[in-house]
Amino acid sequence: MTTDVAITTAVAQQFPSTTPRASLDCPAFNVPAAEALALLQYLRDAQGYDFLMDLTAVDWSAEQSPRFTVVWHLYSSTKHCYVRVAAACPADADPAMPTATGLWAGADWHERETYDMLGIKFTGHPDLRRILMWDGYPYFPLRKEFPLAGLPTEMSDAEINEEIKVGVISAPMAGGPFVATPGEPMSEAEPRAKDEAWNEKKEKPE
Amino acid sequence: MATDFSFPDAAAKAAQANLPKEFEPEKMSLSMGPSHPSTHGVLRIQFELDGETVTKADPVVGYLHRGDEKIAENMTYNQFVPYTDRLDYLAPLANNMAYAIAVERLAGLEVPARCQAIRVITAEMARVSAHLMGLGAYGIDVGAWSVFMYCFEEREKLYRLFEELTGARFTTSYTRIGGLSRDVPEGWTGRVDQFCDQFMPILDEILGLLTRNKIFIDRTVGVGVISRADAISYGLTGPNLRGSGVGTDLRKDRPYSGYEQYEFEVPVGAKGDCYDRYLCRGEEMKQSIRIIKQAVAKFPSGDWYAKDARRIFAPPKDKVLTSMEELINNFMIVTEGPQMPAGEVYFEAENPKGVLGFYIVSKGGGVPWRMKIRSPSFCNLSILPKLCVGNMVSDVVSILGSLDFVMGECDR
């Protein structure tokens, strides 16, 4: 496992506002959201980190502020090293981050996915639509307050909704996956069926 | 009067003929999928067509709604292993290995040489099996049926070996964090070696059905060309990237699980068209067989699980039933999950479809706080809107097949 040691000092010199980020493997930096793009561009052009391997975000739960952190993973095909860049979204209620689509075309889908799953708006993105969920889905499923089984919603099509009178109901969990919850007393954390929208006792709505 | 059989830009032709506006050809919109035989899963592509030429393509993914990342954040590390089978369900063993190594990096575990060798053998067998499926299905897409049948026969032999090793043909769930679910059965490596020996001539035969085939060449050469710069910019990986001439292979560049001990080549394409991607896959299978043969030849003895895996593995059943300490340990691992340190880890493995990455954010405890899965099919598909434009609808079929994606992985 090779890591690029020189990158830490180079980034610290070029971008004094960055701070090193705790990491178990590759070099990682925290950067203010406003400077994120400049740092990514510097890494791509001056340091040879030519691949945007992954772009995602972490939700640190509603009690935390800043709540959302956007994380980029870059890979250098010449140095064979990874680097992680993380920037906290300044606003918790309406998180936003500048788009990296100008630097990598592949950022397009990654950003759409992050928007779809966590509700982070990428400013300047050419086509920020939902990608995994359907258009008009009202929730962001990977946010921590969103239950595992999902929430009942209306059908995306008003006409179908009118006809069948049942929206999209959330997934049944009885007998479903073996689910444990983090950070609670063990009696609470014990795997058991949770988030039951309907089960044997409560019938599926007609 | 000579008939004009060429198809110039229809709008320009209409303007030339001085037709009234209502006679001008309209763009037509067409949906391909979500269950089209050539889309290899629930992919829907919304086309805008001018005649038979694609002017705009918008892939719509996400019909599966499986939510693997959400599930991962709600269960212990051990419990997630079976879910990794279902990402790229054509190569579950390679996914198992990628996930196990990611969590091992988080836990700071080192697995012994025997475990690494078994993982390499199974991952390479999974690569052969996935590429056979990819080639066979591609053959059908462009009109060669028998390739599919030959590929399936070979795949069946591999599946018999998988079944013998893991107890399952498809959803293997073979690795554990810090080891494997079981050691190899008696004589299994010998049978793997036998398979390799008989497979090589058959593979040549299978590839011979396509490589010099006139129809196949006509449908793939020069179609769907991905330039080197585009391949990097879109973050393509695997044979799709290497077909465009970028020789990046994580098995060579950042060896994991002992890949540095094996001799193999990384096949690289020249033009980046569908034909190059096909050739890369064919050659990769031969290299995989090379790796398997080497790994079987110097198959190490010793343990097949990490020394300090006791805090992650459930103990052997006879110990659980006779020792109080082991019973408590077993109970804690099952209910609370293996206890991990806090921290962030990103690990990527070279899978048949491309690079499969796991980004794990841990706050400590038995459940990951955030697990992002970087799936190769998702990234590989993102170039599709660009690749389809300007081609005919029938070319789109050969482009789709050459990208070799699995929607289960794309959607997660």
From TrEMBL, chain A:
Entry keyword annotation includes Translocase:
yes
Picking any one GO molecular function of the record gives: NADH dehydrogenase (quinone) (non-electrogenic) activity
Q: What class of enzyme is it?
A: translocase
State if Transmembrane is listed as a keyword: no
Pfam families (alphabetical): Complex1_30kDa (PF00329)
Q: Membrane topology type, per the record?
A: Peripheral membrane protein
Biased segments, Basic and acidic residues type = 189-206
- List cellular component terms (GO): plasma membrane
Principal cellular location given in the protein's record: membrane
Per the UniProt record, which EC number(s) apply here? 7.1.1.-
InterPro entries documented for this protein:
NADH_DH_suC, NADH_quin_OxRdtase_su_C/D-like, NADH_UbQ_OxRdtase_30kDa_su, NADH_UbQ_OxRdtase_CS
Q: How does it assemble?
A: NDH-1 is composed of 14 different subunits. Subunits NuoB, C, D, E, F, and G constitute the peripheral sector of the complex.
Entry similarity comment: Belongs to the complex I 30 kDa subunit family.
- Name of the protein: NADH-quinone oxidoreductase subunit C
Organism field: Lacunisphaera limnophila
Q: What is the lineage of its organism?
A: Bacteria, Pseudomonadati, Verrucomicrobiota, Opitutia, Opitutales
TrEMBL record, chain B:
Role description: NDH-1 shuttles electrons from NADH, via FMN and iron-sulfur (Fe-S) centers, to quinones in the respiratory chain. The immediate electron acceptor for the enzyme in this species is believed to be ubiquinone. Couples the redox reaction to proton translocation (for every two electrons transferred, four hydrogen ions are translocated across the cytoplasmic membrane), and thus conserves the redox energy in a proton gradient.
Protein species of origin = Lacunisphaera limnophila
Q: Does the keyword Translocase apply?
A: yes
Instruction: Keyword check for Oxidoreductase, yes or no.
Output: yes
Q: Which reaction does it catalyse?
A: a quinone + NADH + 5 H(+)(in) = a quinol + NAD(+) + 4 H(+)(out)
Q: What is its EC number?
A: 7.1.1.-
Q: Can you tell which superkingdom this protein's organism belongs to?
A: Bacteria
Spell out the protein name for this chain: NADH-quinone oxidoreductase subunit D
**Similarity comment text for this entry:** Belongs to the complex I 49 kDa subunit family.
Compartments, record wording: Cell membrane
Q: Which GO terms describe its cellular component?
A: plasma membrane
